[in-house]
């Protein structure tokens, strides 16, 4: 066995070898080394600057290290640190999407209501779902967004979202470093992961799932240190090339670390009350423990019974922790019923499209993952491969699971990506056995650059950091409500005319409407919506079918699920059920526009711009005997383009502060 020691700043290395060697066996390029006198060839000292040694088995390999001057090496080290900062800033920018999500208004309002009045048991702000049970499984996330929004506003929400993104990508980078991945491999991988996550990193409770999943992976990696990252499907005894039986290497793990897996149940308890994505995390956790248990049996036989039982108890405890929620077992019954119903009308539940530009980072990450695993010289982990395959299957079925795949790839694939880059001559070299070489301290990325190149690279890096930081600050200070996406002007019309009553509102605008006009002052009439983005947590399938019949008309079964028990398609049903007073629709949803045009006798157009139409019940708004009669002079029927944006929450009084582009 050989032992390698580094001594002194001049990279003097000492190799202590347990078997005798001959001086003349050393490579010629070490002739300048100072070899100390030794009788039995047990000690070698190399004090010449720039010489390093690697030992593999009983053979000794020497190579010449970078001979850059110390000041250049020191500058290169700082450049490396600057490169890390620049990439993390780029990741933060990729994860700083600053456009309001359609559900954001609702999540803030529900959290605010629960803090003030307690958790409601039935659907709020709806006139068709009065008394219908509401399973709010995102309450912790809604507490958080309500508190942040009320105290820090839109910029505070963006800032916290960005910090969570940096925490996830920074954690992936730290783990890649711990696994021995080179700087180029680690930084390029987290940047690709961040870009892939970009479209999914919006202000929604899903963030709780992505952060919790990252914490789960960190817990598993720490607990299975020594076990993870290696192919463990070996029998206790195997046969060597000579046909003789030999014992397989022992399974390496730490019992004290494995005990930390008992932190998983409290994690799942919190996760269950923050977002429904806990179910994906629980399935991954159970599959992970099950496969590790199978590996233990393969390696240890009956001696693994204790480990397998412990894994089983941890899994059962994690399952039990999910029952700690305001609804108990009823939540799981609802979840079981809900998951059996497809939801193609919700875009994020559809499969990713090959030619859609927004999915290009995902396809690139998939290509990187497959090529890295196929061409890596590092040992593969059977558990990692299986779990990645399961997550990929879900990501290819529903693109909302792409984020889980991206995080798992970033966490587990850095050694293999580093190995692939090393084979291509990029990044740090690789040892013959596929491991990472222990490189000298002066192996910084730009250590071999000339002084002028280092200065130029530093200036470029500083410019990149400055530009990225400026761009990030602009994004974090502005949470946009785009006028061509949301009915900002129509809401200003509703506010200025003090309209109220029952509102049929197009799906993506309903939570904006209920948060704006629902919680009005005591004694002042408010607006209630038909249905909103809470979907089956608050509404029956029949209620939702009536709404989408109105919005979509005759439908493609590939684009929408409809319960056969809801009866025949009737686009006009929503105009009769509950006797609505107002209808707010998007002009881009042609079926609903056509329905309202056919109903002009019963309904009158009160407002129109290039995006939205607001219709009122004729008996209330077009009858001169009605107290709510609106004369023609007050109606606004135009095709005025809706451009620019308003700062969130875009309440009507903010319209005058809108920014036109």
Write the topology of this structure.
Layout: E1 2-7, E2 12-17, E3 43-46, E4 51-56, E5 59-64, H1 70-94, H2 104-117, H3 139-178, H4 183-197, H5 206-223, E6 237-239, E7 245-247, H6 255-258, H7 264-272, H8 278-300, H9 305-321, H10 329-339, H11 360-375, H12 382-397, H13 402-412, H14 414-423, H15 451-476, E8 480-482, H16 488-496, E9 501-505, H17 510-517, E10 527-529, H18 541-552, E11 582-586, H19 590-598, E12 603-608, E13 612-617, H20 618-621, E14 636-637, E15 645-647
Parallel strand pairs: 9-10, 9-11, 12-14
Antiparallel strand pairs: 1-2, 2-3, 4-5, 6-7, 8-15, 11-13, 12-13
**Which residue ranges are poorly predicted, with pLDDT under 50 across at least 5 consecutive positions?**
1-67, 438-442, 655-661
What share of the residues does DSSP label as strand, in percent? Answer: 5-15%
What is the alpha-carbon Rg in Å?
31 Å
Q: What is the mean predicted local confidence, pLDDT?
A: 86
What is the percent of helical residues?
A: 40-55%
Count the strands? 15
Structural class: alpha+beta
Amino-to-carboxy terminus distance: 71 Å
Spatially, the strands of the biggest sheet line up as 10-9-11-13-12-14
- Gross morphology is globular
Give the biggest sheet: 6 strands, mixed
Number of helices: 20
């Amino acid at each position: 066995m050989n032992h390698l020691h580094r001594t002194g700043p001049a990279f003097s290395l000492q190799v202590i070898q347990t078997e005798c060697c001959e001086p003349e066996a050393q490579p010629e390029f070490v002739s300048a080394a100072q070899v100390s006198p030794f009788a039995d060839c047990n000690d070698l000292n190399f004090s010449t600057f720039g010489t390093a040694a690697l030992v593999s088995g009983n053979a000794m390999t020497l190579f010449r290290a970078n001979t850059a001057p110390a000041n250049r090496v020191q500058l290169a080290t700082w450049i490396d640190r600057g490169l890390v900062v620049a990439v993390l800033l780029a990741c933060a920018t990729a994860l700083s999407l600053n456009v309001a999500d359609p559900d954001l208004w609702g999540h803030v309002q529900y959290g605010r209501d629960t803090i003030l009045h307690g958790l409601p048991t039935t659907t709020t702000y709806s006139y068709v779902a009065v008394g219908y049970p509401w399973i709010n499984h995102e309450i912790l996330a809604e507490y958080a967004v309500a508190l942040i929004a009320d105290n820090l506003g839109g910029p505070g929400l963006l800032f916290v979202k960005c910090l969570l993104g940096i925490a996830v990508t920074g954690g992936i980078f730290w783990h890649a470093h711990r696994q021995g991945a080179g700087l180029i491999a680690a930084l390029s991988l987290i940047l690709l992961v961040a870009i892939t996550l970009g479209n999914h990193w919006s202000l929604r409770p899903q963030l709780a799932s992505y952060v919790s999943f990252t914490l789960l992976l960190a817990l598993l990696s720490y607990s299975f240190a020594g076990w993870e990252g290696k192919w463990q499907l070996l029998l206790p005894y195997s046969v060597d090339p000579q046909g003789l039986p030999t014992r397989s290497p022992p399974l390496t793990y730490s019992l004290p670390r494995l005990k930390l897996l008992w932190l998983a149940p409290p994690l799942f308890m919190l996760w269950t009350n923050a977002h429904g994505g806990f179910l994906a995390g629980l399935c991954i956790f159970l599959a992970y423990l099950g496969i590790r248990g199978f590996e233990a049996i393969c390696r240890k036989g009956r001696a693994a019974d204790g480990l397998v039982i412990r894994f089983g108890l941890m899994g059962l405890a994690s399952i039990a922790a999910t029952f700690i929620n305001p609804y108990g077992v009823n939540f799981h019954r609802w979840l079981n019923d809900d998951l059996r119903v497809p939801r193609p009308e919700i875009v994020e539940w559809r499969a990713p499209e090959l030619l859609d530009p927004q999915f290009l980072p995902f396809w690139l990450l998939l290509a990187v993952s497959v090529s890295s695993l196929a061409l890596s010289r590092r040992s593969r982990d059977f558990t990692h491969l299986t779990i990645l395959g399961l997550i990929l299957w879900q990501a290819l079925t529903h693109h909302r699971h792409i984020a889980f795949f991206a995080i798992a790839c970033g966490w587990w694939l850095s050694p293999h990506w580093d190995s692939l880059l090393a084979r291509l001559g990029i990044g740090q070299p690789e040892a013959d056995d596929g491991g990472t070489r222990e490189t000298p301290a002066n192996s910084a990325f730009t250590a071999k650059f000339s002084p002028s190149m280092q200065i130029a690279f530093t200036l470029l890096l500083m410019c990149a950091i400055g530009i990225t930081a400026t761009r990030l600050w602009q994004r974090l200070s502005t949470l946009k409500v785009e006028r061509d996406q949301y009915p900002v002007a129509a809401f200003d019309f509703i506010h200025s005319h003090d309209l109220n009553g029952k509102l049929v509102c197009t799906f993506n605008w309903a939570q904006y409407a209920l948060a704006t006009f629902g919680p009005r002052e005591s004694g002042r009439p408010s607006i209630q919506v038909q249905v909103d983005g809470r979907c089956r947590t608050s509404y029956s399938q029949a209620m939702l079918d009536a709404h989408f019949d109105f919005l979509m008309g005759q439908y493609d079964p590939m684009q929408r699920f409809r319960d056969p028990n809801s009866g025949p398609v009737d686009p006009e049903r929503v105009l009769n059920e509950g006797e609505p007073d107002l209808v707010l629709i998007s002009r881009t949803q042609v079926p609903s526009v056509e329905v309202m045009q056919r109903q002009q006798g019963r309904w009158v157009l009160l407002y129109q711009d290039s995006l939205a139409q607001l219709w009122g019940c004729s008996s209330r708004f077009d009858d001169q005997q009605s107290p709510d009669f609106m004369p023609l002079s007050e109606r606004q029927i135009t095709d005025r383009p809706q451009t620019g944006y308003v700062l969130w929450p875009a309440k009507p009084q903010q319209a005058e502060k809108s920014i036109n582009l």
